[in-house]
From TrEMBL:
Cofactor names: [4Fe-4S] cluster; Mo-bis(molybdopterin guanine dinucleotide)
MF GO annotations: 4 iron, 4 sulfur cluster binding; formate dehydrogenase (NAD+) activity; molybdenum ion binding; molybdopterin cofactor binding
UniProt entry keywords in alphabetical sequence: 4Fe-4S, Iron, Iron-sulfur, Metal-binding, Molybdenum, Oxidoreductase
Record-stated family: Belongs to the prokaryotic molybdopterin-containing oxidoreductase family.
Protein name: FdhF/YdeP family oxidoreductase
Domain Molybdopterin oxidoreductase intervals: 112-492
GO biological process: cellular respiration
Record CDD domains: MopB_CT_ydeP, MopB_ydeP
Regions that span the bilayer: none
Organism expressing this protein natively: Chromobacterium paludis
């Protein structure tokens, strides 16, 4: 059953995709022992009458008639469709202490959870509990808290709109805005940056715009692994002659060449070229890089004006739609080239080249992922990108726009539904009006602040609607202690993970249906809705038999929890479960843009929740697209650490391997980066290995340089010589989360700086 590849490092010479991708799919299905009857699930993925792929938030082509092959989508579906199960007998045979000794990879392999379980301290085991008793126990804890703000309700981004909406309604009626969510660890920087510049924190483009763009700038993303279907769009654009630029410290495989399994010719001719230019900033160098590009665009405009040529700036757009351009331009003129170049880690020639490509583009899309959002100055960098796009009016017209590429398949929808620790007064007013109550007004806790609060004893109850909070968050030992300091932890999950094992005094595991499964209620099978990264809202119907008869849907769990905690005098919680269309009718009343929800979402392909920015309506305080001036920050934790340690100081990014889904480890390879059978590896430049006095293939321990005197370390990482900028390191999370200090966060968004951790290395004292 176990397919354990041998540990090896061997450069991958093929394009991304291709036959290896098809081979990997076969291995996945075999490993998960997916029953033949469930193979059809793969073909129903992202089809008009099938389920929305739980893999990522990249949108689907409308009316797809052919199966859009995606190796990693198959992994996500197969992980849910696996034939393996764990129930009471599994937990009776193992103490929690024993399970804790297993790796995240091993925990994932056990299969689907099948029945509700409660922790028994006397035996250190999880024992079966009835659903009614489980809800009563949680309700008891919640009712006993002297202040509702002593509970926190985490949401991971697979949850449907219907569940998210009910969940926030329940929690706000209970009395708190404590909604830490996976967004806080992910695109929060985008969600905080964009409303100030263009008014809405969402993409201004739709998939169709990718067919009309002549230039696509991809910042800090690894689509071959994380958004494989995006490569089909990039491939088509490149074939049409569009210029694609990858801005990334790594030359990621899929952004170089891609062999589409949909195009048989690609499989034999070495695939299609994707990027024609690679700009390789050092980690966290993007703010300076983008500001440099903007400065250069201004210079090009000056040159054009001097020669009496065509303007480079879109002067009409600036005049009609923008505010603050003059202040922005004078700040750019005053900025020092030497400082921008040093901070970006990119030579002037490359900045000028990127500016040239940008200035020549008549329709430019810029996309970005975690490479932009998980740094201290992420919000400023994204606002600078927005400034750059506004300079040439690249927002709100065909083939052009801003495109944050979100992660979890419904993370964007969950926010739209109100999973938000800082809700707007307008949102709360409307919710309060629809249900006749006064919602809590004080801002709640986000993910990082929830950990602080649990550690300090200010939060006593933690409820997780999906996800794996213990492993997704930074400063692992501190986070573990925080969770263990709770009176109650509840995890609503499909599969076993470490968050079940790092628990409060009282602890419950509530197993749930996955999105691929039939959700049968009184009025028949229920569909749920999701919103993708480009604001398309559509229905999703599961088609597999549930993994166990005892599973409840997330919607049912939420409704029954609300019923047990608050009673049903005011709201008939259980009626929602019979027919999810009722929930949609209420969403239609409470959330702008969802008018006539049930009818509109029944249309094939669903509907577009058009953000005002796409229509050049600017929901900003000035009513215009707002230029924002940001100075280059010089006194940063990394600069301070470097002042102490000189060039021994390295900066570490923590990212995903090809065979993981966030904290879920499907397998141990990272094929495109040439890593097989292992995860404790450290990507490092050849000259840095020599400079630090190591040899490739040696193991090192990694230590964080931080100012609080706490030792943060991760041990036994294999040095892998790699094409990465000098001074930069790459490794996988969650293994490296112990290195990220809880208070090392992005300004404004409070997102952990997962892509820039100041570290030192020393020869490992641990055997491999
Ligand atoms: N198969 C699979 N699919 C997934 C996920 C998964 O784990 N597995 N996760 C989902 C989720 S929740 C998310 S958020 C997305 C994540 O998708 P990505 O945003 O692609 O996430 P990462 O793997 O963290 O890769 C970050 C990329 O940014 C680059 N980078 C790092 N630091 C910098 C920097 O300072 N500047 C620039 N310009 N680039 C930098 C890295 O080299 C890497 O290519 O994927 C989603 N899809
Ligand atoms: N160092 C570092 N840390 C990071 C990141 C990084 O780049 N570097 N990335 C961050 C990002 S972008 C994100 S989004 C977070 C992700 O953080 P989370 O969303 O908390 O983590 P996941 O690993 O996606 O959650 C996996 C678990 O979700 C449960 N699950 C799966 N499907 C379902 C379902 O349909 N319903 C329910 N109820 N449960 C389900 C399973 O039990 C599984 O074990 O991690 C963040 N952490
Ligand atoms: Mo994410």
């Amino acid at each position: 059953m176990d397919h354990k590849p041998k540990e090896r490092i061997e450069a991958y010479r093929q394009p991304a995709g291709g036959l290896d991708s098809i081979k990997s799919t076969t291995i996945t299905l075999w490993k998960e022992d997916v029953p033949g009857s469930r193979y059809k699930t793969l073909l129903s993925q992202n089809q008009p009458d099938g389920f929305d792929c739980p893999g990522c938030a990249w949108p689907d082509r409308e009316h797809t008639s052919t199966f859009e092959f995606c190796e990693n989508g198959v992994k996500a579906v197969a992980a849910e469709a696996t034939s393996r199960r764990i129930g009471a007998d599994f937990f009776a045979r193992r103490t929690v202490a024993e399970l804790l000794r297993q790796s995240d990879y091993e925990l994932e392999q056990h299969g689907r959870l099948t029945e509700p379980l409660a922790y028994d301290a006397a035996s250190d085991r999880y024992l079966p509990i009835s659903w009614d008793d489980a809800f009563a126990r949680i309700a008891g804890h919640l009712q006993a808290l002297p202040d509702p703000n002593q509970a926190a309700f985490y949401v991971s981004g697979r949850t449907s709109n219907e569940t998210a909406y009910l969940f926030q309604l329940f929690v706000r009626l209970y009395g708190t805005n404590n909604f830490p969510d996976c967004s806080n660890l992910c695109h929060e920087s985008s969600s905080r940056a964009l409303p100030q510049t263009v008014g809405v924190g969402k993409a201004t483009v739709v998939l169709d715009d990718f067919e009309h763009a002549d230039t696509i700038l991809v910042f800090g993303q690894n689509p071959a692994t994380n958004h494989p279907r995006m490569l089909n769009e990039l491939r088509a654009a490149a074939k049409r002659g569009a210029t694609i630029v990858s801005i990334n410290p790594l030359k990621e495989k899929g952004l170089d060449r891609f062999a589409s399994p949909q195009h048989p010719l690609d499989l034999v001719n070495g695939g299609a070229r994707i990027s024609s230019l690679f700009i390789r900033p050092m980690l966290g160098g993007d703010f300076a890089l983008i500001k440099g590009v903007a400065k250069r665009v201004l210079e090009l405009d000056d040159e054009a004006t001097a020669k009496g040529g065509e303007r480079v700036l879109d002067v009409d757009f600036l005049a009609e739609h923008c505010h603050g351009f003059d202040a922005f331009a004078s700040d750019l003129r005053a900025e020092s080239w030497a400082e921008l170049i040093a901070a970006a880690g990119v030579p002037f020639e490359d900045i000028a080249k990127l500016a040239q490509v940008y200035a020549q583009g008549k329709a430019v899309i810029c996309t970005w992922g975690m490479g932009l959002t998980q740094h201290r100055d992420s919000v400023a960098a994204i606002q600078m990108l927005s400034n750059l796009m506004m300079m040439r009016g690249n927002i709100g017209r065909r083939g052009a726009g801003l495109c944050p590429v979100r992660g979890h398949s419904n993370v964007q929808g969950d926010r739209t539904m109100g999973i938000e620790d800082k809700p707007t007064p307008a949102f709360l007013d409307r919710l309060g009006r629809v249900y006749g109550f006064e919602p809590p007004r004080a801002h709640g806790l986000d993910a990082v602040d929830t950990i602080h609060a649990m550690r300090d004893g200010r939060v006593k109850v933690f409820v997780g609607l999906g996800g794996n909070f213990a492993m997704a968050t930074p400063d692992t030992p501190l986070t573990f202690a925080a969770l263990q300091n709770c009176a109650l932890t509840v995890q609503i999950s499909t599969k076993l993970n470490r968050s079940h094992l790092i628990h409060g005094q009282d602890a419950l595991i509530l197993p749930t249906l996955g999105r691929t499964e039939i959700d049968l209620q009184k009025t028949g099978p229920q569909g749920v809705t999701v919103e993708d990264s480009m604001c398309m809202v559509h229905l999703s119907y599961g088609i597999n038999a549930p993994a166990s008869e005892q599973l409840l849907s997330e919607t049912a769990i939420t409704a029954r929890l609300a019923h047990a905690t608050l009673g049903s005098d005011k709201i008939d919680w259980l009626a929602y479960v019979d027919d999810y269309a009722r929930i949609r009718d209420e969403i239609a009343q409470a959330i702008p843009g969802f008018e006539d929800f049930n009818a509109r979402v029944a249309q094939p392909g669903g509907f577009h929740l058009t953000p005002a920015s796409r229509e050049r309506r600017w929901l900003t305080p000035s009513g215009k697209a707002q230029f924002i001036v940001h100075a280059l920050e010089k006194d940063t934790p990394i600069a301070r650490a470097r002042a102490l340690h000189g060039d021994r100081l390295m900066v570490l990014m923590t990212a995903r391997s090809h065979d993981q889904y966030n904290t879920t480890i499907y397998a141990l390879d990272d094929r495109y980066r040439g890593v097989y059978g292992q995860r404790r590896i450290l990507l490092i430049h050849r000259e840095d290995i020599a400079k630090l006095g190591f040899a490739a293939g040696e193991r090192v321990d990694i230590f964080t340089v931080w100012h609080d005197g706490v030792e943060r370390r991760a041990d036994g990482f294999l040095l892998v010589e790699y094409d990465i900028p000098r001074g930069c390191l790459g490794a996988y999370f969650p293994e490296t989360n112990p290195l990220i200090p809880l208070d090392s966060v992005a300004t404004v968004s409070n997102t952990p700086t997962s892509k820039s951790v100041p570290v030192l290395l020393s020869r490992s004292t641990h055997a491999a």
